[in-house]
Amino acid sequence: MNRLNKLFQDKKDALLSIYFTAGYPNLNSTLDITEAVEKAGADFIEIGFPYSDPLADGPVIQHSSHIALQNGMNLKVLFQQLKDLRKRVSIPVLLMGYVNPVLQYGVANFCDSCSEVGVDGVIVPDLPMYEYENLYKDNFIKNKLSNIFLVTPQTSEERIRKIDHLSNGFIYLLSSSSTTGKNLTVSNEADAYFSRIRDMQLKNPTMIGFGISDVKSFNKAAEYTRGAIVGSAFVKFLDTENAMERIPEFIRSIRP
Amino acid sequence: MNREFIKSSVKWGVSKEGYFGDFGGAYIPEMLYPNVEELRKRYLDIIYEPGFQDEFQMLLRDYVGRPSPLFHAERLSAKYGTTIYLKREDLNHTGAHKINNTIGQILLAERLGKKRIIAETGAGQHGVATATVCALKGLECVVYMGEVDIARQAPNVARMKMMGAKVVPATSGSKTLKDATNEAMRDWINNPVDTHYIIGSVVGPHPYPDMVSRFQSIISEETKLQLMERTGSENPDIVIACVGGGSNAMGMFYHFLDDEDVRLIAVEAAGLGVNSGESAATTALGKEGVLHGSRSILMQTEDGQVIEPYSISAGLDYPGIGPQHAHLFKENRGEYVSATDEEAMIAGRLCAELEGIIPAIESAHALAHLEKMVFTGKESVVICLSGRGDKDLDTYMNYFNL
Lengths: 256, 402
Ligand SMILES: Cc1ncc(COP(=O)(O)O)c(C=O)c1O
Known about the structure:
A: alpha/beta, B: Rossmann fold
């Protein structure tokens, strides 16, 4: 059991996770933001490692990835920065990014490095289930890393069952099929989809992400799942004045 | 049902899992999975429906103008001292091979019940070919095109607009083909139900590379028949094609893959020179990795960030190649070489002067390789003239001060 599993087991209230891009706005802001987000009360953190061609992302995260790369961020630098992670941060931390940088770093090396610095899970949206299961799963299990899969309203029940079987952390529900940064669609269809998933009684908990930006969308997510993930809204917030000092204010604007 | 239609090579074709050797697969986020999976499950069944084949072949004949001629280029032959044929894809409706694929995919999209078509384009040839088939079928069409390419291929932008397509500039990254492809994929993520994405080359997640090469395989199918008629033998000694993503080359290679004494030569764009830092010579500069949904060879940093390519030719300005090409390259079934901007421009002009054919700058890269070959005089060489040079007149004019 890793920190993430324990969190889902122990905490009963709606969970809030914050995503941001490593190396943005400054190369060395990664750990400071991580620490500040924990202090402000978030339950876990997703640190994005940047990629030149983030095709599942909207303009906000495209921009943060671009700046982070310009600042010199890459996986080697990130793992170096995270060496002191567990001296400063105790909540679960996940890394999120695209598969190509991971392949170049080496999947086995990547999983080892995650475990060395105390990362609990990984979200790689373009790593296919087939390749994960047949080539890489053992590296994840050996390092007690949760591999997080995404589900959209179009994902079939059979596939969701398979994802549930392969998952060991939580399942990441997209509010709709979309790139990051769109607003959560509050509609009858979305309700029907969320309750359909809830009624499947999956073995893994679920969280809703993509398009959560305020109390209303957070509460909506918490109605059906264990909580929500905020990404683009936080990355956009980091661009505002005195953002570092105002992180608690941001967290309260999502979960008062 | 005619299972002989577009037969796939057992040795070089795609595996059940969507791989060509180590390359291929479908490295896509879950948001794209339902669409790609629907396509994977159904593409072969649809292609093998008799109604599909009839309509596909009728349109290739009556609309595209196929078969495209195989032209014995006598003055080029005399210059290089061997027998050179040009496979005239430039004479297709819309001026390039790209329409073979868009005809196939629009018929497929129709049968999948899709109402809206999206595409990426570099040189604009694929965008034009997509806008064309959308007009033909009355479907909505949105084409993503890098801002830089919109500027250097203005006539094609106008053609797309004239046929009712919406051209959306891609403004991220190098603002060329790679970025247009990212934007098209983002569009597909955000429109998961009614939209079909017509990819323009043998790239993308499985089943695209296999599907597009099947639609382009008409190039080598005809070449075999035409050579047989002409020479009594259906195989040349050498075939040459340029490679951006690799669709005209796959079409040109397709029915020769199993005839291993036919040399397959693929010419990539070296830009200002392979080691100049301004190049698109993927096999020379690239490493294995994942781009646009498949595992292949791509130009990237040590950290796995995609390197912006450069070529004077918008259609070859792409940092990857299709997975089947990566396989042919790794297994040495194909010879992967490159030509610089300058070599291509000179070859393009030479072809115009000697044969009265102005080639697309993409195709001129294939012609440029003739300069580097040594012939005994007995070889027959087929070059895929993938497109005509009308769209490139501005570039030719500036380059040669015409
Ligand atoms: C005339 C022509 N040839 C070749 C290409 C390169 O594409 P591919 O390698 O897929 O044939 C293009 C692309 O736009 C083109 O317009």
